[in-house]
# Entry
Amino acid sequence: MIVRSLHDIEATDHFVDWGNSTSHRLLTDKDGMGFSICHTIVRANTVSLLQYRNHLEACFCIGGEGEVEDMDGNVFPIRRGDMYVLDKHDKHLLRGGPDKDMILVSIFNPPLTGTERHKLDDPAGSTY
# Structure
Protein backbone atom coordinates (compact mmCIF):
# COMPACT_ATOMS: atom_id res chain seq x y z
CA MET A 1 0.00 0.00 0.00
CA ILE A 2 1.18 3.52 -0.79
CA VAL A 3 -0.03 6.48 1.28
CA ARG A 4 1.30 10.00 0.65
CA SER A 5 0.23 13.56 1.34
CA LEU A 6 0.86 16.83 -0.47
CA HIS A 7 2.89 17.88 2.56
CA ASP A 8 5.12 14.79 2.23
CA ILE A 9 5.87 15.61 -1.43
CA GLU A 10 6.78 19.27 -0.79
CA ALA A 11 10.03 18.23 0.90
CA THR A 12 11.16 16.19 -2.14
CA ASP A 13 12.22 16.76 -5.75
CA HIS A 14 8.74 15.53 -6.75
CA PHE A 15 7.36 18.96 -5.87
CA VAL A 16 7.94 20.99 -9.03
CA ASP A 17 7.32 24.72 -9.40
CA TRP A 18 7.67 25.57 -13.09
CA GLY A 19 6.57 29.18 -12.95
CA ASN A 20 2.95 29.16 -14.12
CA SER A 21 2.06 26.14 -12.03
CA THR A 22 3.09 23.83 -9.24
CA SER A 23 2.86 20.06 -9.39
CA HIS A 24 2.98 17.52 -6.58
CA ARG A 25 3.94 14.22 -8.25
CA LEU A 26 2.19 11.89 -5.81
CA LEU A 27 2.61 8.65 -7.75
CA THR A 28 5.48 8.18 -10.22
CA ASP A 29 7.14 5.59 -12.42
CA LYS A 30 9.20 4.13 -9.57
CA ASP A 31 5.97 3.16 -7.77
CA GLY A 32 5.31 0.57 -10.49
CA MET A 33 1.61 1.27 -11.04
CA GLY A 34 1.90 2.04 -14.77
CA PHE A 35 0.55 5.61 -14.42
CA SER A 36 1.28 8.71 -12.37
CA ILE A 37 -0.95 11.00 -10.33
CA CYS A 38 -0.21 14.69 -9.85
CA HIS A 39 -1.90 17.49 -7.93
CA THR A 40 -1.42 20.57 -10.09
CA ILE A 41 -2.21 24.20 -9.35
CA VAL A 42 -2.34 26.40 -12.45
CA ARG A 43 -1.81 29.97 -11.29
CA ALA A 44 -4.43 32.60 -12.10
CA ASN A 45 -3.72 34.86 -15.09
CA THR A 46 -1.09 32.55 -16.61
CA VAL A 47 -0.90 30.99 -20.07
CA SER A 48 1.32 28.02 -20.93
CA LEU A 49 1.85 26.42 -24.35
CA LEU A 50 2.32 22.70 -23.61
CA GLN A 51 2.54 19.34 -25.32
CA TYR A 52 3.16 15.90 -23.86
CA ARG A 53 4.87 13.98 -26.66
CA ASN A 54 5.70 10.98 -24.48
CA HIS A 55 2.61 10.84 -22.25
CA LEU A 56 -1.17 10.89 -22.44
CA GLU A 57 -2.83 13.05 -19.79
CA ALA A 58 -6.28 13.17 -18.21
CA CYS A 59 -7.11 16.09 -15.90
CA PHE A 60 -9.99 16.45 -13.44
CA CYS A 61 -10.63 19.90 -11.98
CA ILE A 62 -11.21 19.84 -8.22
CA GLY A 63 -11.22 23.59 -7.65
CA GLY A 64 -10.98 27.04 -9.16
CA GLU A 65 -11.31 27.69 -12.86
CA GLY A 66 -9.36 28.06 -16.06
CA GLU A 67 -9.44 26.90 -19.64
CA VAL A 68 -7.71 24.74 -22.18
CA GLU A 69 -7.42 25.73 -25.85
CA ASP A 70 -6.54 23.40 -28.71
CA MET A 71 -4.46 24.49 -31.69
CA ASP A 72 -7.60 24.97 -33.80
CA GLY A 73 -8.64 27.80 -31.47
CA ASN A 74 -11.37 25.87 -29.63
CA VAL A 75 -11.51 27.14 -26.04
CA PHE A 76 -12.93 24.92 -23.31
CA PRO A 77 -13.74 26.52 -19.95
CA ILE A 78 -12.73 24.22 -17.09
CA ARG A 79 -14.34 24.44 -13.66
CA ARG A 80 -14.68 22.19 -10.64
CA GLY A 81 -16.14 18.86 -11.75
CA ASP A 82 -14.89 19.12 -15.37
CA MET A 83 -12.42 16.78 -17.05
CA TYR A 84 -10.28 17.14 -20.14
CA VAL A 85 -8.11 14.50 -21.81
CA LEU A 86 -5.11 15.01 -24.09
CA ASP A 87 -5.57 11.70 -25.89
CA LYS A 88 -3.56 12.50 -29.02
CA HIS A 89 -0.50 14.18 -27.47
CA ASP A 90 -2.36 17.42 -28.18
CA LYS A 91 -0.45 20.69 -28.16
CA HIS A 92 -2.57 23.08 -26.10
CA LEU A 93 -2.73 26.35 -24.21
CA LEU A 94 -3.45 25.97 -20.51
CA ARG A 95 -4.78 29.04 -18.71
CA GLY A 96 -5.45 29.74 -15.08
CA GLY A 97 -8.63 31.66 -14.36
CA PRO A 98 -8.73 35.46 -14.37
CA ASP A 99 -9.23 35.60 -10.60
CA LYS A 100 -8.69 32.03 -9.40
CA ASP A 101 -6.09 29.33 -9.66
CA MET A 102 -7.23 26.12 -11.33
CA ILE A 103 -6.61 22.99 -9.25
CA LEU A 104 -6.29 19.72 -11.14
CA VAL A 105 -5.69 16.06 -10.46
CA SER A 106 -3.68 14.84 -13.45
CA ILE A 107 -3.13 11.24 -14.53
CA PHE A 108 -0.25 10.45 -16.90
CA ASN A 109 0.34 7.30 -18.91
CA PRO A 110 3.08 6.20 -19.16
CA PRO A 111 4.01 7.56 -15.74
CA LEU A 112 6.24 10.54 -15.07
CA THR A 113 9.57 10.02 -13.34
CA GLY A 114 8.53 12.88 -11.06
CA THR A 115 11.16 15.52 -11.79
CA GLU A 116 10.10 16.67 -15.28
CA ARG A 117 9.87 20.44 -15.54
CA HIS A 118 8.26 22.66 -18.17
CA LYS A 119 10.45 25.19 -19.99
CA LEU A 120 8.16 28.04 -20.93
CA ASP A 121 10.76 30.12 -22.80
CA ASP A 122 10.54 27.99 -25.99
CA PRO A 123 8.18 29.72 -28.49
CA ALA A 124 7.23 26.26 -29.86
CA GLY A 125 5.95 25.27 -26.41
CA SER A 126 7.16 23.11 -23.57
CA THR A 127 7.31 19.38 -24.19
CA TYR A 128 8.26 16.21 -22.37
Summary: The chain has one domain: 6-127. The CA atoms of residues 26 and 38 lie 5 Å apart. The chain has one helix and ten strands. The first strand starts at residue 15 and ends at 17.
